[in-house]
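Sat 14:20. Reprocessing the chain from the morning session after the first attempt stalled halfway. Input below, unchanged.
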Amino acid sequence: MYIILVYDIASANGGEKRVGKMLKHCRKYLNWIQNSVFEGEISDVKLKEMLYIARKIMNEESDSIILFKSRDERWLDKKVIGVERMMTDNFL
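Finished this time. Tokens:
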């Protein structure tokens, strides 16, 4: 499946450390495209694994993760206006 993942970490109560941990964690599974935004192909098993660990990093009382799922990238109409931070088009 193809997903877009967005996270928001509150700055209070050690949020800065959680932001760094979440960034590093999500980059293991997906392509980092903008500050707290990731996209890419991922299997159901890998998605469950990623979310299991992400829940340990985040504080569910103040932080959030939003997932947008699609069967395939070709079903998304993606348009970038301005500078694209991490281009994913040139992966082989």
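The mean pLDDT is 86.
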